[in-house]
Amino acid sequence: MKSFFWSGVLLSLIVFSGSSSGMDCRLGEKYYIQAKSATDPLRRIEWLHRSIEVCSNFNSWYMLGLLYKNQGNINAAIDAFVQAEKTAGPSKAEARALARRGELLAQTGQLFQALHALKLA
């Protein structure tokens, strides 16, 4: 009887923590959509940071990298593309992030690192 009770408690905790994570990612997706619809780049960056804060995901990191790149903030863009690589699911998404990082590294004169990133892409 005790083991049945503890099994039920454990199962409840697992279900609750899983649904909490799913809810965070749904909220993160809403923030990502807000970022896509915003016209002000600073507002877009703010929404993307909110999205990443609740659920780190490829799309938000990738868009953040593009926005930083467009602002000329190359180091922040590279960092965002590195995070996009880490959260990329399919290999195509990872390759896109690697290619962008390689492009930015080449622009900053870091040719060896750029070549390596582009080769991986």
Low-confidence parts: 3-20
Structural class comes to mainly alpha
Average pLDDT score: 84
Helix fraction, binned, reads over 70%
Number of strands: 0
- How much of the residues is beta strand, in percent? under 5%
Largest sheet descriptor: none
Please write the string of helix (H) and strand (E) elements: HHHHHH
Distance, first to last CA = 55 Å
The Rg value, from CA coordinates, equals: 19 Å
| Overall shape | globular
Number of helices: 6
Structure notes:
- The protein has 121 residues and is mostly helical.
- It has 6 helices and no strands.
Which properties best describe this structure?
globular; 0% strand; mainly alpha; 121 residues; disordered N terminus
Give the gist of this structure.
The chain is mainly α. The protein is built from six helices and no strands.
Element layout with pairings:
Elements: H1 2-37, H2 41-54, H3 58-71, H4 74-87, H5 91-107, H6 111-120
Helix pairs in contact: 1-2, 2-3, 3-4, 3-5, 4-5, 5-6
